[in-house]
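Worked example 2:
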Amino acid sequence: MNRRSFLHGLAATAAASVVAPRPLSAVSVQPKLQLGMDNYAVRAMGWKAPALIDYAAALKLDAMLISDLDAYESFEDAALRAVRRRAEAAGVAIYAGSWSICPTSKVFRKTWGTAEEHVRLGLRVAKALGSPVFRAVLGTMEDRKTPGGIRARMADLLAVLMACRRDALESGVRIAIENHAGDMHSWELRELIDEAGHDFVGCNIDSGNAVWTLEDPMDVLENLGPVTICSSLRDDMVWATPEGAITQWTAAGEGLIDWKAYAARWSELCPAVPLMFETISGGQKVFPYRQTEFWQHYDRRPAALAKFEALAKRGHPLAPFKAPPGEEGKKATQDFQRAELERTIAYMRGQIGVGVRS
């Protein structure tokens, strides 16, 4: 499919591609849902893969997404197999990832070569580690403002995915594209995945990023849960302002997500996928969506926006985290990140009943 056909096809099938919401079942959670972390949650520690594995094992986690290729000292197969053996000995399943694979994204970097070379490297690393996925992203909300908008960037990403389809199928590793930093609405990402093909592409679902596209995280789960193969999760606080709303990410249980309902629905839509948490707490983001010009770059859907506004009505302002300068600030940031993640893990395990290991 050429780029123009893809763009027309997306516009024509937008409404049909979204999964219709289904009623929540009882909120009892299946005990076999796996619990894990995304290494970005403790990025201030600067740990490489061995230290990350040891930390995940100390927390008795089932899985971990290592979302940075920089976490590996070497891409040689022998070195990667050593990392895999360490993880297997610790009982931690590794999910591998990296960042933008859209060559026209504002955040794409040629660190790993062209977009296709980046994907092929990621697939090779993931296979050596025993990861079932290679997680990647399109970009950020700034890509919505580029020539052609987010639809053009989606078409460019689709071309990369299709160029690497055979590589993915031969490796047995699926490519997990994230709803990342406000780049794609959940319905846009679902369209992209459906167009590429579920045989080698799925979703890395991010509950925190849901509010950066003015969506309710439960709606995002409904849309993307059926194609979810990896995860980077956190809680959201949202509160209304005269211009629109402010969002701030939090530890699980300290925001607006009903995690009992979320985990129950997860167990129906994607039960084999671990709930891996990427707490990025403390910062705030302003969304002046009551200003007309805001909607030049977003897809305004009244029903979706109404649910987001309902969240904001239930929310309340939080104080942002701000570290002091210098070495004291570095230590404070490290302590803050670990505390946010560890409080999240304790909540999900103790209050929600998630996690195979206890």
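Residues 11-29 have pLDDT under 50 and may be disordered. Residues 326-352 form the longest helix (27 residues).
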